[in-house]
Amino acid sequence: MVGFMRYSLVPLLVLVGFLLAGCSDSGDLAETPGGPEPVTMTWDGLIPEGYEFADPLEGMDVSGYADDDPEAIALLEKLRASWADTPVIEALDGERIRIGGFIVPLEGDGTHISEFLLVPYYGACIHVPPPPPNQVVHVTMAEPGLAAGLFDAVWLTGTLRAQRSSSELADAGYSMRPDRVEAF
Description:
Elements (H helix, E strand, L loop, with lengths): L1 H21 L3 H4 L9 E2 L29 H13 L13 E13 L4 E7 L17 E4 L12 E9 L3 E2 L4 E2 L1 E3 L3 E4 L1
Parallel strand pairs: 1-2, 4-8
Antiparallel strand pairs: 2-3, 2-5, 3-4, 5-8, 5-9, 6-7
């Protein structure tokens, strides 16, 4: 009986192996147009090793401020000024990556978004202060843009650039023109 079970399990184990291999994301990412298979990146992977952001708002309760409150505006400017020297990882410039995050629209026509910020957490830049620049990716889409909305969660695949930019909502330390966008 033991010999029978050993041989009858082999086809089952082979089938399970094929099924598990089919569930892997890496198989269909290898076919992504635009270059080699991307590396799936976490947001922590965009921060230089050993760097610690000194948040000037740490310990402050900013939830009671209105967006147009002069004190809130002054605190936001203080926060943004502290980012002037926020480092990015220059070695990531030109790397093909895949990263997930939330959309904060910058430009669009009401149906499609042509430019947005990708941020690591829901509410960033709108409901709570923005993250430091090395945690923001400025994204420019090819025409006609992306049919998505505020804070939709997406995976972006493309070539990352260590390139700073500023908008009214946040400063970005990286940029990308993705060749693939998927729902998160």
